[in-house]
Write a structure and sequence with these properties.
about 190 residues; mainly beta; 7-stranded antiparallel β-sheet; 2 helices; elongated
Length: about 190
């Protein structure tokens, strides 16, 4: 539907070879509902071979972009996304850490503006079939929440064949990491700690 006094467009968007900042995607697709004031996204997928990030939500304030940033309310969920792809997005050079495997998450519910996003509630992130520096992880998961540019790690679990590491901590807006870790039955020489 399109009226010049109240434009309203509903449809399906499919775009190939999309670059959004550091993120490059083979394909982005979503159902959408667009008015002057808002953009509603539903059943969205960002294809990152291997893996996909599912997306839905709303962007409000499109009619006032010249005065203020838009307000976002988004739900994301990662499935089978390559660890190295996400590490490079986070600025970790693959030469510093040898990692393999995939990442999956629970639903991540975000709210705020593009430069000041926060999670509504903590979410879990899982590493699957993961190795770090050739050391297999039999279980790896963390519960994370963030507010603007501060990340809170409420729980961290790394289960190795030769031990276990548990912890919690935070990453501040200055990128400083503060972790409280405990290890059980861990062979230090093998883990390269």
């Amino acid at each position: 539907l399109f009226r010049s006094d109240a434009p309203h467009i509903v449809g399906r968007l499919t775009a190939f070879n999309v670059q959004m900042g550091k993120l490059e995607s083979e394909r982005v697709e979503s159902l959408f509902d667009l008015t002057r004031e808002r953009l509603l996204l539903n059943q969205g997928n960002i294809l990152l071979t291997p893996g996909v990030i599912k997306l839905s939500g709303i962007v409000m304030g499109l009619d006032t972009l010249s005065k203020a940033p838009p307000s976002l309310s988004l739900s994301l969920q990662a499935e089978n996304v390559d660890i190295n792809r996400l590490l490079s997005l986070a600025g970790v050079e693959p030469k510093r850490v040898q990692a393999s495997g995939t990442i999956a998450t629970d639903e991540i519910s975000l709210t705020g503006t593009p430069n000041e996003l926060s999670t509504r509630f903590p979410f879990k992130i899982y590493l699957e079939n993961a190795t770090i520096d050739d050391l297999p992880l039999t279980q790896a998961e963390a519960t994370i929440a963030f507010h603007k540019s501060n990340v809170e790690i409420t729980s961290l679990l790394l289960q190795l064949a030769q031990g276990r590491i548990e912890g919690s901590g935070a990453i501040g807006s200055d990128k400083r990491v503060a972790l409280n870790l405990s290890a059980q039955s861990l062979e230090i020489g093998r883990a390269h700690v």
